[in-house]
């Protein structure tokens, strides 16, 4: 078992990205800036879905994208420059038509604290018009594959 395996994750089998907090990530208070956490959430999301068949090239080919419609963030503790963190993420819902959701947990192994918990909600949009549209089957399959890997049951068709 690795140290990452021993982390108390919120759900099974997270997709994990290590993070090193750098000085430019911090704000005037010396804490990691809230926009930095959002950037990390976006980065881990792309890293998670890319190998599932939802690369940027696939988005461009299909002309569809999952756009964030809402993000809820709970800042539970501060992190600082030189902290070693791990961000875990899970796709937690997909209706197979328009919407999906993702959960995030940022954890600091040095003291065993969860720093951030967040949930983002997405809607599939047409990349040209920006209007909501039905998810391509490739997106639905990728979401289902991820949910099953996380021990979650996708919604039926």
Observed structural traits:
HotDog_dom_sf; single chain; fatty acyl-CoA hydrolase activity; 5-stranded antiparallel sheet; 3 helices; hydrolase; alpha+beta; Thiol Ester Dehydrase, Chain A; 23% helix; 4-hydroxybenzoyl-CoA_TE; 34% strand
Describe the structure.
The protein is α+β, with helices and mostly antiparallel strands and 157 residues long. It has one domain: Thiol Ester Dehydrase, Chain A (Roll). Helices cover 23% and strands 34% of the residues. Strand 4 and strand 5 (113-126) form a beta hairpin. The termini are far apart. GO terms for molecular function: fatty acyl-CoA hydrolase activity. Keywords: Hydrolase. InterPro entries: 4-hydroxybenzoyl-CoA_TE (IPR050563), HotDog_dom_sf (IPR029069).
How would you summarize what this structure contains?
By secondary structure, the chain is of the alpha+beta class. The protein has helices at residues 34-49, 56-62, 137-149; strands spanning 15-20, 64-75, 84-94, 99-108, 113-126.
Total DSSP helices: 3
Helix content: 10-25%
Main sheet properties = 5 strands, antiparallel
* Class per helix and strand makeup: alpha+beta
* CATH-defined superfamily: Hotdog Thioesterase
Shape: globular
Q: Largest beta sheet: what is the strand line-up?
A: 1-3-4-5-2
Number of strands: 5
Average pLDDT for all residues: 93
Round the Cα radius of gyration to an integer and report it.
16 Å
The CATH architecture classification is Roll
Pfam family, one: 4HBT_2
GO molecular function: fatty acyl-CoA hydrolase activity
Keywords: Hydrolase
């Amino acid at each position: 078992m690795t140290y990452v395996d021993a982390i108390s994750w919120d759900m099974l089998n997270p997709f994990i990205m290590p993070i090193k907090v750098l000085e430019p990530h911090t704000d005037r208070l010396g804490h990691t800036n809230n926009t930095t956490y959002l950037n990390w959430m976006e980065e881990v999301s792309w890293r998670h879905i890319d190998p599932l068949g939802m690369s940027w090239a696939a988005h461009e080919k299909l002309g569809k994208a999952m756009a964030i419609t809402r993000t809820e963030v709970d800042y539970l503790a501060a992190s600082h420059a030189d902290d070693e963190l791990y961000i875990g993420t899970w796709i937690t819902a997909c209706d197979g038509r328009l919407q999906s959701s993702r959960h995030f947990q940022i954890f600091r192994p040095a003291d065993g604290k969860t720093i951030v918990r967040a949930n983002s909600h997405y809607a599939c949009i047409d990349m040209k018009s920006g209007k909501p549209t039905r998810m391509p089957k490739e997106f639905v399959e990728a979401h289902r594959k991820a949910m099953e890997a996380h021990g979650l049951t996708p919604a039926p068709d």
